[in-house]
# Entry
Amino acid sequence: MKEYQTITEISGPLVFAEVDEPIGYDEIVEIETPQGETKRGQVLESSEGLVAIQVFEGTTGIDRNASVRFLGETLKMPVTEDLLGRVLDGSGQPIDGGPEIVPDERRDIVGAAINPYSREYPEEFIQTGVSAIDGMNTLVRGQKLPIFSASGLPHNNLALQIARQATVPEDEDSGEESEFAVVFGAMGITQEEANEFMEDFERTGALERSVVFTNLADDPAVERTVTPRLALTTAEYLAFDKDYHVLVILTDMTNYCEALREIGAAREEVPGRRGYPGYMYTDLAQLYERAGRIEGREGSVTQIPILTMPGDDDTHPIPDLTGYITEGQIYIDRDLNSQGIRPPINPLPSLSRLMDDGIGEGLTREDHADVSDQMYAAYAEGEDLRDLVNIVGREALSERDNKYLDFAERFEAEFVNQGFDTDRSIEDTLDIGWDLLSMLPKSELNRIDEELIEDYYEEDAESVEAEA
Amino acid sequence: MSQATQDSVREDGVIASVSGPVVTARGLDARMNDVVYVGDEGLMGEVIEIEGDITTIQVYEETSGVGPGEPVESTGEPLTVDLGPGMMDAIYDGVQRPLDVLEEKMNSAFLDRGVDAPGIDLEKKWEFEPTVSVGDEVATGDVVGTVPETVTIEHKVMVPPDFEGGEVVAIEEGEFSVTETVAELDNGEEITMHQEWPVRQARPAAEKKTPREPLVSGQRILDGLFPIAKGGTAAIPGPFGSGKTVTQHQLAKWADADIVVYVGCGERGNEMTEVIEDFPELDDPKTGNPLMARTCLIANTSNMPVAARESCIYTGITIAEYYRDMGYDVALMADSTSRWAEAMREISSRLEEMPGEEGYPAYLAARLSEFYERAGYFTTVNGEEGSVSVIGAVSPPGGDFSEPVTQNTLRIVKTFWALDADLAERRHFPAINWNESYSLYQEQLDPWFVENVEDDWAEERQWAVDVLDEENELQEIVQLVGKDALPEDQQLTLEIARYLREAYLQQNAFHPTDTYCSPEKTYGILTAIHAFNDEAFKALEAGVPVEEIQAIEAAPRLNRIGVQEDWEAYIEDLKAEITEQLRELY
# Structure
């Protein structure tokens, strides 16, 4: 391995060095500063005689005398089942004081695309125990369903609740529920947030079945571009080689995208929207698309990326591009949060694209799809009427309209608001749904099959309501 | 992708630099858009710029680990597709490599690189039946024989466009592979079942005609209000979650085209899997055979290499044109053209080209119009009639239709189905906004509907449009003063409009019956609502309060017509009941 002391330019996270041998694109580089500190980086551009290197740990301390070593291989993640229970830093080094990790294998972190032909369509219901998700935006194994949140909202609590409660109701013979292995990738979150996660993992014993990667807010930003790839490489290994059902939580994707922008700017690339690089869609897709199921393999990778929308704006490039890649999204809502609704999930803009195939008879319950549809329509109608009430008052509205207003209120207070510690089965969720729908006259339930109405509609609910 | 012939190999070069999917080579002798093999692993790429000794190449595969000094081999041929029997029921990546063959060759569920495979099976034997005999004169494009490609599709073997044609001197029935000669002409030309065609070049046709037949989609709002013609173009723009992909899938499933080419361009892997799993199980409403038997899938998901995403649209339309030449009506769905445009942008910015609007290259509009112009209703070279209809999904950032891809698309296409996030949020599906959408084919297609469905098709449609327009205006007032402040007749109009929205415009894609609605049923539902409207207004004039009219028991059953198998009887009953219940009130 040759060493070079040929650095010609240092700019932000980038170092340019002259070389006299061909260097592969994406290859790993070690840079040793005159102080003896070693930093790692990756080749961003390779041409004859000159390479551009992106340094993960920041370029502080590097000068033109620093020596550059090319390792002749692309970035790899050492993977083994023993990673479960371990805490690693953002570049994959253990930080929990535990024993050294002896890898079974070292895997390229870029990760090849799954052949669409080899995929298996995800349709196994995951019970998160959260009504607003299970009932209205069902998650299935192998799905990628991000949480769209914003600063100051309790998205971490929701992520933890899902990580804690998520199970897949297994077939009735074995009566067992299978738990998930959790791979947690933190990018640029604060120490406090990280502690919150770690404490919860330890308290609930979830750490034993988790692998934690933490890149903190004061860790180098460039490292953030690597962290999710390490996490996903580990997840793929556990899922497709070791038959685990893996839940990957990535937080916060906004910090990841900021890091991409930083590198793009340092390379003087032509920027796309709001200064983010034009290839951000492709880059994000290479992360999100690593969720899924593969035909003939037991395990699965389910992703819940969390992102904070700058200015609560979902047309911002980060949530926008994410929404185009992921299979739906869960919105955390500021208004609901300030009303004390926990978890403050707003079901109206939320969506799970894979829901339709994961629910129904034999999977959840025969009435699931219809109940969910009807509640959407009814809540949307109630929401619309709220604007009107502000102007004309309740008295000016018809009886029908008033029912919808009541429905919207009870929907939030009873269906959505369950607290971060309540674990509801899907039956409970749907029964609460029928409780609420039975406030409306039968003729309004135009999205529910007539036979299901006969079976589930609670006849006296309406009159009870009227007396009360 | 076609196995490039080796005899035309030109001088090879070496890699000078690598930056993501863009590689430059020195000393390479190649023409623009020639296919080259890059590096020790032979990654497939295409020449996109030549400057002095430096040739710039976009590589269709991941370039990690590739470095300067590695060889670049020229094939001397542009990017072509293999055309011949075997394309139906196939699933390809963006450069026509069959994904099932790749899985087998790579022996992995993950896509490795440096593996090539021909687009059609070169070994497989097909049953060839001649349609001409020795002594017949055949010209370019003429059919010389047929092959049963799938249960649905009879593949026609044609004289390739670059042949001159002449007298048939030998032709035989029997089993042949696609590379074996099935017919010989007197000028020495040998016809096989295999053609190659460069993807960036449109296949020739005799004449482009005005389309006069609808592409019936089985979707009420499309057929009823905003129809597209066979050979027409349509755009479906919408923010995420508004149902672009479901709409595209519905069209791919139920449109009455002979052939469907579905291009998943930069979209989700699971969506393509859904198509692969669903289509073989679904029956074509026209023939009763599995849908897959008339479908060709091109899947270049968002995490597959970006350069192949740029080419997948062309691969798709070239395959579509080939079947058009046989006289088939082909529908091409491209989901999504925005990803294609973004791939262009990404490559363009790596080339450091001067950006146009929002970073897109200045040639964006030209590329889009070039692509959509390849659609149309044609007289083919051999005098048959065939069509290519193109339906492109557009994914505007933030749902903002003023962005360059949507705007440039709208300048070309004649049908616009605007998806609306508000409608999607209240689960009104398909979430096509009836106020913003339009179809410029309406008048051209009305004669067909009059002849094939009902005489007053256009009048009924106009009635529905008028009611919906009026609702739109009234809603503004309702927002201010509430519904009860409106005069009774306007309240009733709102009620009618509600049924139009719920029973007519909404359609459940996941309900086994409602998912496909014939034009007759579409018309039937509309007339049922119209009949309710007429009777209701009569009752109102007779002094019945609007609340009582709204409360009749039969009316909500209008919403159930869609899910009825035996809808004709159901509508008759319902009309009678509505009339009876309303007349009882006065």
Confidence is low (pLDDT under 50) at residues 3-9 of chain B. Chain B touches chain A through 81 residues (CB under 8 Å). The radius of gyration of chain B is 27 Å. Chain B has four domains: 3-77, 123-193, 207-440, 457-583.
